[in-house]
Design goal:
The protein is mostly helical and 170 residues long. The protein folds into two domains: 94 residues; 74 residues. The protein has eight helices and no strands. Helix 3 packs antiparallel against helix 4 and helix 4 runs antiparallel to helix 5.
Length: 170
């Protein structure tokens, strides 16, 4: 039944222009068609393990389990669980800087700088002020060379300095 399954996925990919979902759906088809070697090549070429979607990460973890790679599967499940939880919180209307800050940390650690900066900027608009930690802790190390990161840190630091001065005046 792999041929009709592949055809259905290809039809869905064309109709929706959604490669991530189609690539996710093909994990089991590829395994059934070609076994472990085909699945290993597919996981490397499809980039499911770099997806931003929890479902894709869970399916990539399933694929890694089929390949006997429990350590990578465990890491993918952990990433999927954190991102899924944060995405659900944000979708449910949780507008707290800490939620966006945490997701920015996850993205930065994954090497997804643009996504991390988007969420860190949102966190700053919601009151995030932890510039010292952002500069010194390892989770934002990948962002530190970026000019947009440096500009955001400078902006928040100036705001922190103004608040400190206002407190001294009172």
């Amino acid at each position: 039944m792999t041929s009709p399954a592949r055809s259905a996925v290809d039809l869905g990919r064309s109709a929706t222009q959604d490669d991530d979902d189609a690539n996710t759906a093909l994990v089991r088809v590829v395994y059934c068609e070609g076994g472990a070697d085909a699945l290993r090549r597919y996981l490397e070429s499809s980039h499911l393990e770099q997806s931003t979607h929890a479902i894709a990460l869970f399916e990539a973890a399933y694929g890694r389990m089929l390949l006997g790679d429990a350590a990578t599967a465990k890491e993918l499940i952990a990433r999927a669980s954190v991102l899924a939880m944060l995405d659900q919180m944000i979708a449910a209307g949780v507008e707290r800087y800490a939620t966006y800050e945490l997701r920015a940390k996850v993205y930065a650690l994954e090497g997804r700088g643009d996504d991390a900066m988007r969420d860190l900027g949102k966190a700053a608009k919601l009151g995030w002020r932890r510039t010292w930690w952002a500069i010194h802790a390892p989770y934002f190390a990948s962002l530190q060379p970026r000019s947009d990161f440096q500009a955001l840190i400078a902006q928040v630091s100036r705001s922190n300095d103004r608040l400190t001065e206002d407190m001294k005046l009172d």
